[in-house]
Amino acid sequence: MTPWIAKPVPFNIGQSAAGAGASAAFDDTGLRAYYKFSETSGDIIESSESDVALGSAADLQVTGATYDESSAPSSFSASMLFDGVNDTATAGTSLSQFNFLSTGNIESTICMWIRQVSSAPACEPGWFTTSGSSANTVGCDFFQQATMKLYFYISNGSTAHYALLDCGDDYIPDQTSWHFYVGTFDYSLGSNNQKMRRDDSNLKQATPVGSVGTGNARTPLKFMLNGRTSSNFINAYTCEASFWSKVMSTDDQTSLYNSGDGREIY
Amino acid sequence: MKIIIDRIQPFDDISFIGEPEIDYRVNESLRIFMEKGTKTQKVNDAKKKIKELQKQYPDEKFRIVEYYNDEKDEDRKPCMILYETT
Q1: Is B16 in contact with A124 (Cβ distance < 8 A)?
Q2: How near does any CA of chain B get to the CA of A153, in Å?
Q3: Integer Cα distance of A149 and A119 in angstroms
């Protein structure tokens, strides 16, 4: 009699497999735009596969930036280097597709891996920008000042602003290493609606001071410059940037940080 | 690689806290490409050209850039600022 032998079951990459060393798929609910910056030429593709993905209208047209394969957090293989002289990348032409960051009842999350290379120039340039860091326009920015201070800014088109989170001097801690920044905004909280965390820690938070804006952003979403001047460029690498219309849990932030190695959403 | 002169022009601006201020931006439409000679000659000629431009546009700033942005994506390098006025 032939003894019964169990047939080996192939393991499928990406399946939930407790005890098999694989991790479950990351929940992409609310993922509007996802930029891996892993391309080697051409546009940076908007790669969200969620039901609310912005799609190809939000692909990034690259101006001058370098497709880099030499520097990235260890889970990734590539990034994009912006030279701080004249490089940027622009998400199409629509002024409205990123309005979820700056108008209405805002529930948002912005995740960015950044390796800053030089100190910031004058004129409040942003790692990303839709407002141009100007109080009399509508939009949202992560912008910086020369003291390596980072601001998470939501302007409302008046001479004041809706929300301004000042993360303090040297919140960008060095010009050599990769760091993971996550900004969240939750309109429904009674206070401290706006939060910034670096490397799964270093929490800064603030309460809005004005009224939320209406209407479209000042510019299409752009990277590594000041949107109001179309100048004042930032010298930095970036990869794995994602824009969400939901407030990401700290557990999910921890998962994407992955002890500093990073984790792809897909 | 090319050597270019950027003109950086002042303009009235509103800051993030609503304060009026004067900021500067590169006017790419006025970019000057240095055409003749070696890299060293182009840089020296660019410095001479900037001295002329400073007399003509005393409120502007200028810079000389080693420019790669029109190279193919696969071959591109970061641009470098070789000289700039204050």
Answers
A1: yes
A2: 8
A3: 10
* Rounded alpha-carbon distances, angstroms, from residue A260 to A19, A257, A263, B55: 23, 5, 9, 52
- Please report which confidence band the pLDDT of residue A7 belongs to, taking 50, 70 and 90 as the band edges: very low
Q: Which chain A positions have a beta carbon within 8 Å of B28's beta carbon?
A: 86
Residue B15 near chain A (CB below 8 Å): yes
Interface contact A86-B65, CB threshold 8 A: yes
Judged by CB atoms closer than 8 Å, whether chains meet at B15 and A136 is answered as no
Across the strands, what pairs with A112?
A181
- Whether residue A77 has pLDDT greater than 50: yes
Number of continuous H segments (helices) and E segments (strands) in chain B = 1, 5
CB contact under 8 A, A81 and B16: no
What's the rounded Cα separation, in Å, for the pair A12 and A161? 49
Vertex A129, ends A123 and A181: CA angle to 5°? 100
Confirm whether the ipTM is greater than 0.90.
yes
What integer pLDDT is reported at residue A22 of this predicted model? 53
